[in-house]
Amino acid sequence: MPTIPPTLSPPTPPRNSGTAAPLKRSMEARHLVMIAMGGVIGSGLFLGSGYTIGQAGPLGAVLAYLVGAFVVYLVMTCLGELALAYPVAGAFHIYAARSIGPATGFTTAWLYWLCWAVALGSEFTACGILMQRWFPGVDVWIWCVVFAALIFGLNAFSTRVFGESEFWLSLVKVGTIVALIVIGGAALVGFQPLNADAGPPLLFSNFTTEAGLFPHGFTGVLVTTLAVFYAFSGSELIGVAAGETRNPETAIPKAIRATVFRLLVFFVGAITVIAATVPYHDVGLDESPFVTVFSSLGIPHAGDIMNFVIITALLSAGNSGLYSCARMLFSLADEGHAPHAFRRLTARGVPLVALAVSMVGGIASLLSSVVAAESVYLVLVSIAGFAVVGVWMSIVASHFCHRRAFVRDGGNVTALPYRAPLFPYVPILAFVLCLASVVGLALDPNQSAALYFGIPFVAACYLWFYLRHGRPTRRASTAAVSHSSTPDESTSRT
């Protein structure tokens, strides 16, 4: 069983005796895997992959996704060790607060909350626009309200219902990706029974373009690598759900291994098939590359099928995003860094107030995209993109500090139920690669706004924390966060 690092005090019961019930440990490893997959596999793969291939070229796109998968692996190994040391809901800021300092934990939590709150609005809007294909007479905002109510209901009923709904929503898009890899892979070797006009086997002839292997040079690959980092965001949701997972000491490592492997196969496999099937200058943002591939293979009604799949993909990402937002607010309130009302739970263990406020944040970002598209919404989206990599940096930095403190205070590393390999090289390399992607934002005019608004936002979070709470000592910081564990969590760590 996981042991408490010697630098931490034993957990004490929650401060709020008025909560109806503790967060329920009702999710299993399969739920964790699909929650992570649901957060990752969305419009970034189904729509944005066309932009990646167009910018980097076929081979460059595959390389960019391989680098992204490698970084995800590094971050997830660090996440696994931390998630077992601190198996609490909304765990990212707990990791940072205990390992680095409470101000960093505070900033990490608000960055991540804002990231998903903004994403909610954009996903509902995209779903409404896609529904216009079948219902052109219905306004987009009506579909936004319908989908927002659906996602809120799935999250509000119980954690188990959320986990099951996310499992099945994710299963739809995972099945579509598998179909693309299998059917597209067969077409590459000349097996196209549904396409009477099929030519000779394609193999990887598309990888050699008229401008060479990298039609836009290595710079095109670098810029798309930065975008791919964001496409993989959501894999860290396993850490958010750690506090509501049965037997976290076995479920979390299993979920991490499965998630990394599946992301590698699905993302890299799908990009390879798309890049090898469709000429790179024929893909873009105007049509999903999945539609292009399925149509070229003679799949009937490919447009309608993919429209449905993309809607489920967006709803799945929104489902995971709302869950994450609510748990972050709950955890912040548990630390005393957000209104006390966010800690209130229903009899089923759902933080309903935090859930409602998070949904309001998503609706606000949706409205801002219509009312002030050139100001407020773009600012929020820029901060959200900056926040994803910022959270990853926080995770790996927390792991580095946590392991050093654990060893310094006499902890036995070999006794850990899960430990990141090759310490300290893994967290250091992950931090450097993430930092490079942040610095590299300045090279892309479409993403540079993230630096202009993201850095001041981080500074403002730190300033607010120090003005309100002062600069606590290390001992005070440890004591301040030790109360956040629930009775269920204390038994899982002793």
Secondary-structure blueprint:
Elements: H1 29-40, H2 43-46, H3 48-85, H4 91-99, H5 102-131, H6 140-157, H7 159-188, H8 217-231, H9 237-240, H10 248-277, H11 289-296, H12 302-334, H13 352-371, H14 376-408, H15 425-439, H16 449-469, H17 474-481, H18 487-492
Helix pairs in contact: 1-7, 1-10, 1-12, 3-8, 3-10, 3-14, 3-15, 4-5, 4-14, 5-6, 5-12, 5-13, 5-14, 5-16, 6-7, 6-12, 6-13, 7-10, 7-12, 11-12, 12-13, 13-14, 14-15, 14-16
Would you write up a description of this structure?
By secondary structure, the protein is mainly α. The protein has a single domain (32-470), classed as Amino acid/polyamine transporter I. Helices cover 68% and strands 0% of the residues. The radius of gyration is 22 Å and the shape is globular. The termini are close together. Mean pLDDT is 75; it is low at 1-21, 372-378 and 474-494.
Helix coverage percent: 55-70%
Radius of gyration: 22 Å
Q: For the report, how would you describe the main beta sheet?
A: none
CATH architecture descriptor name: Up-down Bundle
**Per the principal axes of the C-alpha atoms, what is the gross shape?**
globular
Q: N-to-C terminal Cα separation, in Å?
A: 7 Å
Number of domains: 1
User: What integer is the average pLDDT?
Assistant: 75
Give the SSE string: HHHHHHHHHHHHHHHHHH
Oligomer: single chain
- Specify the number of helices: 18
Structural class of the secondary elements? mainly alpha
Which CATH class? Mainly Alpha
- Residue runs with pLDDT of under 50 for 5 or more positions: 1-21, 372-378, 474-494
CATH topology: Amino acid/polyamine transporter I
Report strand %: under 5%
Count of strand segments: 0
CATH 4th-level superfamily: Amino acid/polyamine transporter I
